[in-house]
Each structure stands twice: as C-alpha cells, then as structure tokens.
C-alpha cells in the first residue's frame, strides 16, 4: 500500500516545477492524469534527444503518470475536464495567472463542483503583487532571488547548474499538498495553494537571511566556499579538485595534524579560531592548496577520510552516475517505454523501511490514456469517438492503443 493510493490528480502543469511535483505524488501512489493540449503537449516534449519522436528529457519528470489530451479552448473539452474534477482530489497548474480563469477551469469554478478539492497553482511570481502577470521561468527567478549574484567565481552573474527554483517550487508544492491533504482528511475542507518560483527559492536562503537580517551582509559570489565556515570548499589537487569540510575546531585539528601534516597551523595567529580563519580565507586556501596539489584527488580522499574529516571528489555528471556509492544505493532505475524502449532514470531518493517508493512506469505519450480515462469517467464510446473525430480529444499513437477514435486521431496527427 502506498500513502496516496486512491488520490487522483489532474495535472495541468508543464516544463519542470509542476511535473516534478506530480511525479513524486504519482510515485507515492497518486493516480496522476496529465492533461495536455493536442499535438504539441507539454512544452518540454520539444527537448532533444528524441527517440521515435519522444523526448527523453521530458520523460524524466513525467514518468509514472497517465496522459489525456484535450483542447481546453473547446467548451466540450472544458465540460469533460470538469466532469473529471468530480472524482479528483487535486488540480495542479502552472499557467500564467489569469489563464485558468479564461479557460473556465480556475479554483472558484472547480470548487463549485467539488467543494473539498485541493488546487495548487505554481507561477513565476505568484498570483498577486505587481509582478503577477509576468511570465517567469527558472532563470528569471534565479535573478530575482539574488542567486545569480551569489553563485560562481567571477564578475558576471552565474546560474546555478540545475533549475533550482523550479525544483524548489516543486518540492514546496509536494509538502504543501501533503499538508493540505492531511488537513482535508481531518476537516473535510479543501484548500487553494499559491506557490511562486521566487518565493520557493527565497525560502531556501537560510544562512544568507541570517547574515543579512543580523548584520546587513549582502551575499556575494564565493565560488565553492561556505559563507560562514572554513575550510569548507573545493581545493586543487594534482589531477582535479577535492572538497574538504573542516569548519569546526575538532575537525580543523584532525585536518592539520593527521591529514595535511602541519600541526603548527594550530598556533598560527591567522588560524587560531574560526573567526581568524574566516578573516584569512585567501591565505588559508593558498596554504592548503600548496599541499593538496602534491597528490591526486584519490590519494587525498584516502588520507583525509582516514583522519575522520569529511572529504570528497568533484565529479562530472557522467562520473557521478558511474560512482560506486550511487550504484550501490540503487539510484539508477530502468523502465520500458512503449516507444523509446529501455530507459534509464534517476530513482526516488528516499529509502523507506516498509514502503515501495519507486518508479511506477514510463512517461506516457501525448493522450495515451485519453479513451481509458474518459471511459472510467462514464463517457460512452460513441461520444469518445465523435470527440476524437472532431479534434477535441487527441491520441498521438492510436495505432498502439485503443481503437476508439484511432482513425480520426491518426489523420489529425498526419495533418
């Protein structure tokens, strides 16, 4: 049994923040029905590489879901969507504010049909405020939150290597939905959730807010350095870099005595206390690298680890996916996609003692489950076939699927 068994999600999201959130909900047991526009579907389906016309990157956050394809600009498709709302628990969307109202599928409309519905909106800047109507992707949010001014090691702003605000918003949506569902189970009340990429990322600036509110300190780009502790960064070795985390006095003593072989640094007035070391970080980096560049990364990992100090390599992503720890922890999962074929993906990260938290299936093609979901909702086959014929419904690969509406959908796909 999974915690969200019997929990139905109508997923109107695209790109990453919303799809990431609904992917996690799906793998916790929810029946996530991804609602996509005909022909093009989720915008991320454009991303290369593609196999058989299916995007490999788009298949990552959309696994474990079902897909239906409706032209929501059509009154009939809107009626079908609202019919599905009757048996749904959550609607999640990440359109620009105002779009769901224009389509007639906004929270107030949905709530009138299902009073206890949970409804989660994710947008760049939120549903209120002077920026509410601005479109906002991850890079805009990274700019507004200050992330691009505190990342990197030079004069130009630098983007965090992953879409961190998208993932922050997705993670925020996950815990918000779970909290809302817990409350709903106790009170029977629905909930509207307004989440923005900016605010979700801003909430993660934990050390930075402490320094700013406490002392007016504005965080600058510090490369790999920690803002409040040192040595805690990547240092050059003979063949790459090694990360060392020895920010307290106990670890500092182990590092200089047992690993680096310079016990006299404990008496150096520049390095006596953490505050002293922070004040002389440039000198400390130079002194440490004068030593670490004499051996390879692998050699230093063995030496520093034996001294009981946190240490690690700085890997490329391909090296990460071949790392023995990553493999031993089962972080690479395999799944069979009906078009792409065998696929690899990153598995869910939590190891539960008594819960099967795993990839439940491949990502669907556009509209793969349209007929199936509508039948479950009580729509007759002849009506489904008619709506396929008229382009209100869509299935990108009817030849691999149910015969209902196949001819009309195949013709539409070729046009």
From TrEMBL:
Gene3D superfamilies: Crotonobetainyl-coa:carnitine coa-transferase, domain 1, formyl-coa transferase, domain 3. Residues 39-51 have a biased composition (Basic and acidic residues). Keywords: Transferase. One of its GO terms (molecular function) is CoA-transferase activity. The keyword Metal-binding does not apply. Residues 39-58 are annotated as: Disordered. It comes from the Bacteria. This is CoA transferase. It comes from Ornithinimicrobium tianjinense.
